[in-house]
Specification:
Elements (H helix, E strand, L loop, with lengths): L1 H26 L3 E7 L9 E6 L5 E2 L4 E3 L7 E2 L5 E2 L4 E5 L3 H8 L7 E3 L10 E6 L5 E7 L10 E3 L13 E3 L8 E2 L6 E2 L13 H10 L1 H18 L1
Parallel strand pairs: 7-8
Antiparallel strand pairs: 1-2, 2-7, 3-6, 4-5, 4-9, 9-10, 11-12, 13-14
């Protein structure tokens, strides 16, 4: 009886974990454009942020970005493996200068643009995977104008839709935004309010299973009591 009860509980954990994983994967996209600044004023360089909004790690080897439709212009291979909820930066500056200005840890995935004419005032950001397929695309206009102030999706519904009307300028204090070097441009590189932060399902399942450490003695006591009554 005890083994059957444990089996049912474990089966329930597996079903719940599987259902949650499936539902989450069906509604949340994977790597997406989550922030950019086309023209820096008082920070080291323009930048684009990509965030893994999915629940599985993504190997960014062979991925690239372009302000158009050409594959391989700006390599993102240096991002390595992007973990769920992790953001990575493509910027027009050295990593040390960018990290220093924005108070980022050196562990934040980073890639340097290999040209100085990537983004313009009203342009395109295209993200390609290693096969050259378009994973995300944003054609942005001049309003809101991201000149010295980063732009982010105004809601989860604006992520990955290529509809710039849903994007908004950041203000200091909003979604982790602050001024570079304390008084410069406004942005929140390295952070996205849309990044998932749930307890990983394996860990959640382990917590539930670990709870059986409390449940099991109780089941055994119940079984012993039933035996005595019989």
């Amino acid at each position: 009886m005890l083994n059957q009860t444990l089996a049912r509980v474990l089966l329930g954990v597996g079903v719940l974990a599987g259902a949650a994983s499936s539902a989450y994967a069906d509604t949340i996209p994977d790597v997406r454009i989550t922030e950019f600044m086309y023209k820096n004023e008082n920070s080291p360089g323009e930048f684009i942020q990509f965030t893994n909004l999915g629940t599985t790690a993504v190997d960014m080897t062979g991925w690239s970005e372009d302000a158009g439709t050409k594959v391989g212009v700006h390599s993102l291979s240096s991002f390595g493996v992007l973990q769920p909820g992790q953001s990575a930066i493509l910027a027009q500056a050295t990593q040390s200068a960018f990290d220093s200005a924005w108070n980022l840890a050196s562990t934040v995935p980073y890639a340097i643009e290999n040209s100085s004419d990537n983004l313009g005032n009203g342009d395109t950001i295209t993200l390609f995977n290693a096969s050259g397929a378009v994973i995300d695309n944003l054609v942005y206009g001049t309003s809101p104008r991201s000149d010295g102030v980063a732009v982010v999706p105004g809601s989860a519904g604006a992520v990955g839709t290529n509809d710039y009307t849903g994007w908004v300028l950041l203000s200091a204090g909003q979604d982790g935004a602050f001024r570079a070097n304390g008084s410069g441009d406004i942005g929140s590189p390295g952070f996205s309010s849309f990044a998932p932060s749930p307890v990983p399902l394996p860990a959640a399942a382990w917590l539930l299973v670990s709870g059986l450490g409390v449940l099991t003695p109780a089941l055994r006591r119940r079984k012993a009591a039933q035996t005595q009554l019989a």
